[in-house]
Structures are given as C-alpha cells and as structure tokens.
Amino acid sequence: MKKRNKILLSLVALASLANADFLSQEEVKNFDKAGFFDKVNGKVTRVFDSGSMYIVDVQQKEINDTVYVTKDKKVMFSGVAIDMNKGQKINLPVDISIAKGKESFSIGNGKNEISIFTDAQCPYCQAFVKYIPEIIEKTDTKINVFHYPLQMHSKARALAQYQTSLVGKMNPVDIIKIDEHDRGFRESNMTSEFIEKANKEIDEQIAIGNKLGIKGTPYILDSKGNVLDWQVYFSKLGIKIGR
Questions:
Q1: What mean pLDDT, rounded, does the chain reach?
Q2: Which residues form a coiled coil (predicted)?
C-alpha cells in the first residue's frame, strides 16, 4: 500500500507552489473537522493549498511529518510528492525570517540569497562547498552559512568552532572548505572563553535549524524558505557534479 501511495503521489501533477497559499490560522484550526489527526494524537500545524491538494504539516509528539490530503478531505497520502514540472520532491516553504542575521558568515554580496546549514565533517557538505566559487561566479548570489554539526560526527562541533574563529580573518570561501584534515584545525589552540562563546552561537544556529525542520546536511534554502535539492539546483545552473 505504501508503495502504491508513493506511485500515486508521484503521478499527481501539482500546481506551482508559487501560485499557492498557506491557509490562515483559523482555517488550520478547522481543517481537521473529522477529528482524524486527533485520533492518532497528531496536531495540524500548517496547511498549504497547492491548488490540486493540501500539503499538511502534522506534529505527533516530537516528530514532524508532512502528509497530502485531497481537496474533498476524504483521502490522505503519506510518502513522497513530486513536482512534475521541476522534477523534485515537494517540501513546504519554511519561515526563513527566524534565521535572518543569525548566520556565522556570508559568502558573496549578490542580491539573490540562499542559506546553507552545514556540517564540516559531512561528505555531502564537502561535495557541495567545492562548487561555491562557481555558484558565485555564475549567479548574483549571497550564501549565508549556518553551522549544524551532527552528533554522529565527532569533530564537527570543533570544526564549527574553528571556522567561527576565522571569521573576519580569512576569505569566507576558504573558511567553509576547512575540514578535519586541515593543518590549521589540527594545530588550533582556542581558548576556553572563545569556545564557550562559539558554542553559544553554534547552539543558536542548531536551534534555528531544528525549528526549520532540518533532517540532514547540507540543508539549503532560498530567500522564500523553499528547500533546495542541491543537485537539481546545480543542474539548473549548468554546474556538472563530479568533474
């Protein structure tokens, strides 16, 4: 059944999210009149009218999930919905305003902004940052960098601390490229006072990331709060991965 639901969702041609709207808080409150989500101890937190169906954020204890509901509210799907025009998974836009001015540092000065939550020990993040100079060269973009060290990576927080110590002292493109093999990192001797200060900044960025629903890194958002699939994003820019 789950497989069938995913296939059905993938075949649905959803309207462009640019032409869709979030329901008001009052409409969200009345969305679950049948009481389905109440029965499973779930709470509807946001509802997005995509034009052909509703995209619904549901909170169940500590877990946030996204489900898809037909316009007559008689059928709900869980799984993956694909925007057939863009060829990528559909995610609800997030409230990016909570991250404004909270970045560790920025790269570039373009009018188009994207934000990246990164873990310097994450291989996918390292794969992404290799192409940042090309992104800056091809687009009028400013990249806001937030630290999001994952617990599974033993050196990620220390790397975030070290990168923070270099802000204003080194080219930001070089800062974001620093990984666990960097000699400066291996020989660094940060004071306990600085580490405490850096940890406060990093913890604030992690908290923002959690509010935005981060499930892994790199997590990339445009200025409207849309989650970007970085491989699709690169394809649109004409950047070839793996060169």
A1: 85
A2: none
